[in-house]
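Support reply, case 0932

Customer input (verbatim):
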Amino acid sequence: VVAMLNFDMVGRLRDDKLIVYGTATATGLPALLETANAAGGDARLKVTGIGDGFGPSDHSSFYGKDIPVLHFFTDLHDDYHRATDDSDKLNAEGTARVADLAHRVTRAIANRPARLEFVRSAGPPAMTGNRQGSQTYLGSIPDMAAGDVPGLRLTGVRAGSPADLGGLKAGDVIVEFAGAPVKDLYTYTDALYAHQPGDTVKVVVMRGEVRVPLTVTLGKRGG
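Our regenerated output:
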């Protein structure tokens, strides 16, 4: 695997603005992305590149295995995980423009004479978006391949992160967050974003067959 490109929520392009996470996960990715975007001519997008490769989506486990990643994202919206997220709110033309850019990026990566040179980022990204609590940071690295496990299995935690300082470890399965049951990545994300940086919460994990309660003080992304 040379690289992983993730398209998690690209249906709500607004004001031509696209966020791309992971631009610092390989040498030359920012320039490659800029060139691919410029090739779109009048259809080019206003791209904001964010370097870090970790995040609550499928690309994270690839980055944890030293694989360069790019996560294309048209930002959070008020209908996220709500019954009001109807198809008539999708921006089909905008999605096609994101796909065109991604096609050019993919071809540029595939046609390189040498593999991308992986780079390990130093810290968490500062997330954009207006969703309440979206700046709240734990530092856990989800295992995106553990779909048959009730809860959220971790492939690791960031060194020095709230998760690390609170005692969470690779292999732990988060089953409860601040009293709310965690069934998967989505229920975990909802529980996390219901809190603010600085909040102290109880996190319950399954460590093997043992149920382990931990106390964690949440941090702030980019802080």
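We compared this against your earlier run and they match. Two observations from our side: The radius of gyration is 18 Å. Residues 92-110 form the longest helix (19 residues). Please reopen the case if you see a mismatch on your end.
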